[in-house]
Design brief:
10 strands, four-stranded antiparallel sheet, globular, binds adenosine-5'-triphosphate, alpha/beta, single chain, Rossmann fold, 251 residues, 7 helices, binds magnesium ion
């Protein structure tokens, strides 16, 4: 599915009634089955843009179109992996993954079957009866992704999903996400502060300015997967994006 962000601006009410502009005139087209990453200074509006794309926040101006239809509230077609949407601690891993299917009214035998399949894909077989606190952070993050995937979203919005992980776990989660992307072809909008991660995963990297976020740069990462993090080409992309971020930071 394609997702179009059309002329999106956002202002939040600030102290003393002075509005805080967070985004200014964002136009972005996420083509079907493309992997796009947003990168930009802290506070430039990345999370705000994802919330708007998800239909969780109404923008001050502009609109979001999913295959031509306006998104005005959350829809199962758009899956979210946000750190603030933690797992349900009182539910087992299998019950966490089944949650979305339960909400959709899928019958128990069917949703169990689908959840088990996702457990296999996320390499969590054997942990179905565990509770989230009994899993490592990387495993919990895989459960969160499996829970999102259970609803078969065609668009997935991910806000720094691997930000809290150590670098080894992070690398293996990136490989897992790429495999999933290859198998299922969702449209992905991903946010990270990590340039290496952006170059490893994305087909397109969008560079935002300091707040209020405006689109300043678009990098097309023309490297075949799997990508070699230490290759010359990989490093050239890294340098290009790093230089962009430095320029933006200095204003
Ligand atoms: N609910 C809110 N109410 C008021 N202001 C907000 C709200 N959410 C975000 N903001 C403001 O909007 C701006 C953008 O915030 P946002 O969280 O989108 O940035 P970000 O790019 O995701 O930052 P980070 O990289 O640190 O996660 C910030 O100045 C922030 O203070
Ligand atoms: Mg954020």
């Amino acid at each position: 599915m394609s997702l179009i962000l059309e002329n999106i601006s956002q202002e939040y009410p600030g102290p003393g009634g002075i509005p805080t502009p967070a985004l200014d005139g964002i136009n972005l087209e996420l083509k079907n089955a493309r992997f796009t990453t947003l990168i930009g200074p802290s506070g430039c509006g990345k999370t705000t843009l994802l919330k708007i794309a998800a239909g969780l926040t109404r923008p001050t101006a502009g609109r979001v179109l999913l295959d031509g239809e306006e998104v005005s509230h959350p829809t199962p077609k758009i899956g979210l992996v946000f750190q603030e949407f933690a797992l349900f601690p009182w539910r087992t891993i299998l019950q966490n993954i089944e949650f979305g299917l339960e909400m959709q009214g899928v019958k128990p035998s069917e949703r169990r079957k689908q959840a088990r399949e996702l457990l296999r894909k996320t390499e969590l077989t054997g942990f179905e009866s565990h509770f989230p606190r009994q899993l490592s952070e990387g495993m919990q993050q895989r459960v969160a992704i499996a829970r999102t995937l259970a609803a078969h979203p065609r668009v997935i919005l991910m806000d720094e999903p691997f930000g809290a992980l150590d670098s080894q776990t992070r690398n293996s989660m990136q490989e897992f996400l790429l495999k999933l992307f290859r198998d299922e072809h969702p449209t992905i909008l991903f946010v990270t502060h990590n340039i290496d991660e952006a170059v490893f995963l994305s087909q397109t990297v969008i560079g935002l300015s300091q707040r209020p976020g405006r689109i300043r740069a678009e990098f097309s990462i023309d490297l075949a997967h799997p990508r070699e993090r230490t290759s010359l080409e990989f490093n050239n992309y890294r340098r290009e994006i790093l230089e962009f971020l430095d320029r933006e930071r200095k204003g």
